[in-house]
Amino acid sequence: MRWLGSTPDPRLALSIGLLLATAAGCASGTPTDDAGTPPGCGDGVVQPDEMCDDGNDDDTDGCLSNCQPARCGDGVVREGQEECDDGNAADGDACNADCTQPRCGDGIVQAGEECDDGNADNTDTCLDSCREASCGDGFVGPGESCDDGNTLDGDDCSGLCALPTCGDGVVDDGEGCDDGNTDDSDMCLNTCAVATCGDGVVYAGVEECDDGNSSDTDACARCATATCGDGFVQAGVEACDDGNNDDTDTCRNTCEAARCGDGVVGPGEACDDGNSNDGDGCTSMCRLPSCGDGTVQSGEQCDDGNTDNTDGCLNTCQRARCGDAVVQAGVEQCDDGDVDDNDECTNACTIARCGDGVTRLGVEECDDGNANDNDACLNSCRSARCGDGVVRAGSEQCDDGNSSNTDACVACQNAFCGDGFVQAGVEACDDMNSVDTDACVACQAASCGDGFVYAGVEDCDDMNSVNTDTCVSCAAARCGDGFVHAGVEECDDMNVTTTDACIMCVSAVCGDGFVQAGVESCDMGSLNSDTAPDACRTTCMPPRCGDGVVDSGEACDDGNTVDTDGCTNMCTAPGCGDGIVQPGEECDNGAANSNTTPNACRLSCLDAFCGDGVTDTGEGCDDGNTSSTDACVMCAPATCGDGFVRAGVEECDDGNTVSGDGCDSTCTAEGCGTGTVALCNSVNAGSLTGPLATDLFDSWACFTLSSYQGPEVVYEFVPDGSGLVEVTLTGLTADVDLMVMRASAGACSATDSAACIPGATSTRAGTSDERVEFTATAGTTYFIVVDGFAGATSSYTLTVGTAEDHVQLSELFGGTPDYIEVTNYSACDVSLAGYHLRYEPDCEPAFDFAFTAAHVAEAGRPFRVVDEMTTMPNEHYFGANICDIPISDSWAMLCSGAACDTTTCSNVVDFMVRQSSTGVTTPPTCASFLPGPLDTSSFSSLNSHTRTGFTGAPLSWNAADWATAPFSRD
Q1: Which of 388, 638, 893, 914 is close enough to 936 for a disulfide, judged by CB 3.0 to 4.6 Å?
Q2: Is the pTM for the entire model greater than 0.85?
Q3: Which residues contact 892 (CB under 8 A, 6 or more apart)?
Q4: How many CA atoms lie less than 13 Å away from 266 in the CB half-sphere?
């Protein structure tokens, strides 16, 4: 080797030799290697007809062996990126279209799955087990108020997944009965306690009267009618009869009951001025004026006579106002009664929200009440800061939402030479000084020929191309002196820079670790990569947004130019307010989004809509709620005939102004009765297309549903007495519903909610039988409505009367005479034919007694089997001794349809047991008492075993249902 102009440095020769050897190895297989193979896919160089070339035949990386980029659907599983790849874009097979393994929760219904909504929410219609939600699955789903994992009644959740309540028709713990209605005059009161004489409710066929007290001086004594002259009031003859001349007691000397307005202050009256004027100091009810009596007295601003504290008049008889701590329905969103404008409820009685101009402590950092995202408070109610992606006017030159110091925005100021940060793609260096003898000159790497001597690197720099002077390529003659040495050097460009085409006399190539100025933007040698974040790419180009690799400062990079696919063209995550309409958004106008401007895109990136509280084009009003009972309905002013009942203005609204269809032209309710009568224990065949059908009402105040367009049949029913009534619809061929309601002002009303009986509706879907049980009061008129859902019609059989379990055991007496008593808790007279009584004491042989058609229990009345020939009208002589030892052990069963099944208790209606401390009688194993039978050790001949409640349920009755009581045979 010969060096021109100087003696070679052995160390330099060794370094160049190593570089040449390395270069020779790296160049193998390239187009300039005469000894290599022709260029092609797999040579590591991307040819014009190739999209990638990683120099290997590994099909599981980012570049396939055919030099095409790996993608989902190419049939090859890419390691770390795909779970599977079956070469197609179909869901529902062994591999999803997004190259993930099928699994429950991926949003795709696979074989063996009933549904798959892609979430783990067990309160919607699809469970996280990919099974459709149903009552009894243990999760509270749509339309359910509870779900305890079973469909049994009698526990904390009913078989229809509703919370147990008094009036739901199921006897729960703590209830003596539950007939599913609010009629307080049948065998079961509204408190779910069994009705008794003295409870204030008359039982037809059982009681002649019941005034709820034990006084013998009124019109009702011991639930029987009093007679004139006995000191008791004679019903229908005397208004009263107290046997004295005192004109100020409850009975006037004319035997007329004292009344309000007779001019005499009688019992229970605070005053009596003999008139019905409410404003003269004594009301028409003979009460002193008070707040809540419906008359505005002195000192009252209003008096609406109700206890509703959410209307325009408070219970203090002061007009409702914002700040009175009571939310006025339809007027205020909230009312916390304080003057703190920074809590959840503002002083304008609206719910605090971001953008209302009030900073909510602990929740918002700021709230300037505007939609300007470029001031000190962002639209998210967070204080503006550098790095939030929003340029704050007057404070920031830029804000790209990242912390990168190598892009065009550094600390929210525009990048410039001398700021100490190298701007990628613009500056080669930035040393924050103006020294021209170091490695960085004007933010470019120092180089030979730049006219500045690089201290410690250059010997000289004469800025000329003379090869014969003392400064050749800024150094003494050596490799780099400007002359190419054949067989030694590939090139000689007169410098030692590593950024040009000649590096230490070797031609520069991508991948040699040196950045070739003007050709390459970067070169990290073997660390060049097309998949590693922030790496120089194999093309010696820097990483960029759109190269498919998420680098520093990028929230995402999907390698395409689609702005709406989950990653924007700025490599930022999409979001409402970025000005790009993303999937799931209806609109996005960026900073122009507004929740107050008419017709604007809302801050939720949804189009302006009816109900957003802003009156847009085409809307007559918009009150921001979904109420259909106020002055604005579906963004149009409420009017009679729009199909929505306006509270306090209309009684009804059936969507038209035609009279004669249940709601007249002024939206006043019309009667619904047809005069069709259903009797106690009657079976009525009917049809919604028959002559009894009318089509007056499309909705009923007592139904939660409102889709009853089509005919209905209404039956009038008056019970035999007071007690339970069961109403059933069977034989249905369409979805028909059933409802019972009481008369309103003596007539049938479809719109008066006061006529509704809670629980007296049955709205099962499809052709399922409908059943209603309610408590009826003797002498009260009820209306039974049969109506098809959504206009459905069907023939049907309507049965009105008594259920099997309306007859219950109620008393056992072991004195004189002995008897076992059952009580008919129905409002209809019942023939006991078909009921059987099984009695087993320890003092007499057991017996079975079958009731016959001659044994009739009147509505609400008892019927007894006795061992004495002299009987009352409601008794039957058994023909043998029952048991006359008061403390004897015994048990009794009441069964239906056949003799009692004491093995499985399958037909047992009711069960009672009593046992002394030394008792030997054992009840059937299929029935039990909790916690145990009643102890009869202390019974006397005047004690009876008496029913006190109905909290037990087959086949486990409650001992608390039975108690020791005096003999009570009437």
Answers
A1: 914
A2: no
A3: 809, 812, 820, 837, 838, 839, 840, 911, 912, 913
A4: 19
